[in-house]
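Handout, page 2. Input:
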Amino acid sequence: MLLNMLFDDEDEGSISALFQVGDIVVQLKQRPTEGRVLDKAKEELQDYALAHPEESCLPKTADGEYDSAFPNVGLVVWQAGFVLGEWLLRAQPLGPWGKPLRVLELGCGIGQLGIVLALAGADVTLTDLAHITPLTQENADINASRCVVKPTVTPYMWGTPVADIQAPRQQQQQQQQQQEGQTPGDPQQQQQQPWDVIVAADVLYEPQYYDKLLSSLLQLCPAPPAAADTAEQPASSSSSSSSSSASPPIYMCYRFRKYDERGFEARAEAAGFAVTAVPVEELHADYQCGGYRVIRLEQRRRQQQQQQQQQQQGQAEAAS
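Output:
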């Protein structure tokens, strides 16, 4: 997947690389693991924590400094993003990416996964912590000219209201529509439209954040109403609410590093998600022996409804 060797940039000690996923070439900047870069990241995250005292998920030392064994994880390339991106482009589990599908990425880091999907035609929103998103924005800008829809980049901390993600996306959509001479859509209608899919790669290396991540996923993927509840709704409201209540699937990829990654899957199951794994032989040949795992999360009730609909459709076709 590596197309060209890494080469040095002049700004802030960055290094860049060209990567190829399928037929798509993406240029990415990343920050080397230099002390001054990591210190800057810690300072920015510390400032963010001070500005959001209600957030208690940030571990701190006795001196009040951000404390993590992985302070640079969002600033460099991690292969799980390419493993998942390559499989999504090849398998097309939701159909062609050029609809464009609306994609939300959590914990995007430098943006390699989301930008690959954006280059394939998807409408992508990239989210991560505030000290990471400036680098994500740089990479989104570098590749924007070749994207059908320019990726939206916005800071987001797991466990906080997901409405914080939607507003920047709507603003960028309206600006792009105005630039193209289109009439901006109804903000209220856009707010109701769900994401078509949520993706995340290599975000399970700190188990203390699993509950925060699940909190966000439950907000983004609420369980659909039971069949009895749907039947009680007026017919006029059922069609208008069906699209807004749809719960998007979630695709994740991680590498086993003995950080209780399978424990996250158990918690997701307990929270109401059905978790299925992509067979390892379906992954790119270079990563079938690398301990990588791709999983799909979907609200169990919605999955059951879809299975029932498929059975009913099959029965109807057999009867005809």
